[in-house]
Fold:
Amino acid sequence: MRALVWNGINDLRVETVPDPTIVNPHDAILRVTATTTCGSDLHFIDGYIPGMREGDVIGHEFMGEVVEVGAEVTKVKPGDRVVVPSFIGCGSCWFCRHELWSLCDNTNPNPELQEPVLGYPTAGIYGYTHAFGGYAGSHADYIRVPHADNDCFPVPAGLADEQVLFFSDAGPTGYMGAEFCDIQAGETVAVWGCGGVGLMAIHSAYLMGAGRVIAIDRYPERLRMARERAGAETIDYTAVDSVVEELRELTGGRGPDSCIECVGMEAHGTGLDYAYDRVKQILHLHSDRATPCARPPSRAGRAASSRCWACGAWSTSSRWA
Ligand SMILES: NC(=O)c1ccc[n+]([C@@H]2O[C@H](COP(=O)([O-])OP(=O)(O)OC[C@H]3O[C@@H](n4cnc5c(N)ncnc54)[C@H](O)[C@@H]3O)[C@@H](O)[C@H]2O)c1
Ligand SMILES: [Zn+2]
Ligand SMILES: [Zn+2]
Structure:
């Protein structure tokens, strides 16, 4: 089959690679009908996140048609159209049973590559470095989906691929950001970043009752999409002295009721802060946790929705995906 292959930093090529096959009885093989780029892909394409190997197939936001299933798959069958989350959940471990899918205990076969940095490993992700499991990605004709019964979500008839594709990654990520804000009817929400995740956060904020959403980015086409397709007011942060002052100006001096950060790693900036941040990134001095948080004592203390045993701070999921 043909697939988009990582061959080195900033070196992607479409190549012929072996077709995926059923490895375990819970697997399914999908013919990929739609697959898209996530902002997270940029982090390993430019080499900021290590762990890619020459020949890795990339992509983790996708959907497709089931063409083959393993002997123990019961919920999906060949011919079904399905959308698949980027994180792989087994459906049966403690974390999956508590709906903490991105922390699945069973789907990352290389936990030792993550533990030194994150404390404990996350679940596996398709096409997202060997630290996240080393699974082949979705920018390909076909993909193997482990734990198909848990991870394949059937698509209702009548919906086009483009209407459901983002339920794989950007949709739930933006939705979760808005959900964290506990938005009350009529509130004003500020959203930093107008990529896929930001646009989904804007839509989600309105769904949850926001009266106004103010979106911040610097690319005119992204700001236009946030206005025209998602109904946000926008700020070009390169065109104002201070985003904070601009937000106060737009909200009667009070500021937004809540803020959602949809930029993530490698945020662009200006001035001394940005230079300082870049140096720390290049030297890999950035860390999610302050020193006392480096190694929580129990597996239940890791990543999403967890509380640090030492300082009591709540942490959200890792910034790495
Ligand atoms: N499940 C997850 O944890 C998950 C899933 C998807 C994406 N992500 C992360 O979410 C982030 C956003 O993803 P995306 O696909 O929308 O990425 P993207 O790269 O398409 O969008 C990011 C946007 O942020 C803007 N930006 C950069 N610096 C900014 C600044 N200082 N102020 C305001 N805007 C700024 C960029 O111009 C860009 O439009 C990424 O870091 C990605 O890694 C996490
Ligand atoms: Zn992603
Ligand atoms: Zn699990």
Notes: Residues 171-274 form a domain with the Rossmann fold fold (CATH 3.40.50.720). The chain has two domains: 2-86+126-168, 171-274. Residues 292-321 have pLDDT under 50 and may be disordered.
